[in-house]
Amino acid sequence: MFLFCFCLWSFDVKAKSFSITEKEIDLIGKKIFINECAGKIENLTSWNVGTDFASLGIGHFIWYPSGKEKPFDEKFPDFLLFLEHRGMELPMWLKDPAKRECPWKSRKEFMQNLQSPKMKSMRKLLTDTITLQAQFMVERLQTVLPKILESTSNPHPIKRHFLRVAKSPMGLYALTDYVNFKGEGILHSERYNEEGWGLLQVLELMVEGPNSNEPMHEFVTCAARVLTRRVENAPQERSWLPGWKNRLQTYVSDL
Predict the structure, then answer these.
(1) Are both 114 and 179 inside the same structural domain?
(2) pTM to 2 decimals?
């Protein structure tokens, strides 16, 4: 168990602020662990069929082998730096920042090494740092809104809807999970037919739609539309859509 040296974080976005407690961070971590790993330790180290990268931790942080193109946002090396800055002892084979590319070159090689010493040390690290992984994802959220606002020609309503969600019950969980799950929506490499599927695209649909008194339900409805559009642009991903929609429902299931 790891304790933070603070009990309260404040987010300040151009004079608008909201707070998150250590208990809430722990809850976010537990929910994302269930979302991404079905709450199973063995799923902390995975490599999905048809992908060129490992997916690690409760956030399924992407980790590319050397020599691979990186169209998706790689976060596992950043997470290792985050742990170092907080005084965490890394396994010896992960200590050199210059050698932090995924050592397994393919999914086949990765699966063959699931019980290797390196993989076991990786799972132990990830098991011991579940709450810190949630903290890493929440800290990332602090940088998301400024980047989104810089990338859009319609920043004011985007900001307003972000803050509506953030200040709602379960809102910080929803924003943190969605950014980790489908990205910020600002990378042009993360597009199908020039259409993205990240947080920016969800907020844009909220701007276009009628405002309601239930921002969380509004967010979930718009996110479902964005993910449906992604599948329409990439039919090979159709089998994932029911699970994605089920995940969105966790944003409102406790309201």
Answers:
(1) no
(2) 0.81
